[in-house]
Amino acid sequence: MSTSYGLLGIGSIARAIVTGLCEGVAAPPRAILSPRGAATSAELAERYDAVSVAPDNQAVLDASQVVVVCLPVAAADQLGALSWRPDHVVVSATAALGMPRLLELVAPATRACRSVPMPPVADRAGLTAVHPPLAEARALFDRLGGTLEVEDVTAYEALSATSATLAGFFAYLDTQAAWLRTQGISAADGSRYVAATYAGALGSLRSADPPDFAELAGEYATPGGVNEQVARELREAGAFDALTTALDGALLRLAT
User: Fold this and answer.
1) What is residue 36's three-state secondary structure?
2) Which of 154, 150, 152, 125 is nearest to 138 (CA)?
3) φ and ψ at residue 177, rounded to 5 degrees
4) Which of 145, 209, 223, 224 has its CA at a distance of 20 to 30 angstroms from the CA of residue 88?
5) Which domains does the chain have, with CATH numbers?
6) What global pTM score does this model have?
């Protein structure tokens, strides 16, 4: 019998999970969505036959075997107001919600884990960190690109911290596009050019497992070339040190 997935909190990550499970899949699993994020839930239910919207969060639990929690941490206490079954499996994608508190909120369910799914799971291209390892979570995320099971909570939190760099990455690209506008390039052309540059370069990451980032940086940094100059000036300005400091801060918040 196919697993039915319930999703609580329908934002960008839940949308990516549902899309990855259903888009172009001949026999997708059943997905029951909470009414939170009503517009997104309705859109997904209209697009995919395997998706339905429950009238409330309790109805999601009642119809599901595996419950994927995508609520913001500020709303996590809502989990404690629901009636959980001992046979529920809980996969939390809520950042900064530790296992002791998660298990307290979903009792009497005891099989639970934390996870860090990111937007690429929509294209089944994500590698999702899971702690502690859980067979049902592995089955879910293997369908969405792959699973990195992590036994140690400290290692899991460190991986979670690096996933918090995506907004900064896109801001980095936006800075380049904005600079191009000051050079007389139209906003559309500048954005398209920056996007194509990085899409092409990042494609090389798929050819190596694991990729050697330092080696790739060296390939682009021709001695005496402009790439080398920009990388050196960023390093001298402390840009990479600032990133390390930001990661330390993210880890501190996630581990609190």
Assistant:
1) coil
2) 150
3) -65, -40
4) 145
5) 4-160 (3.40.50.720), 166-254 (1.10.3730)
6) 0.90
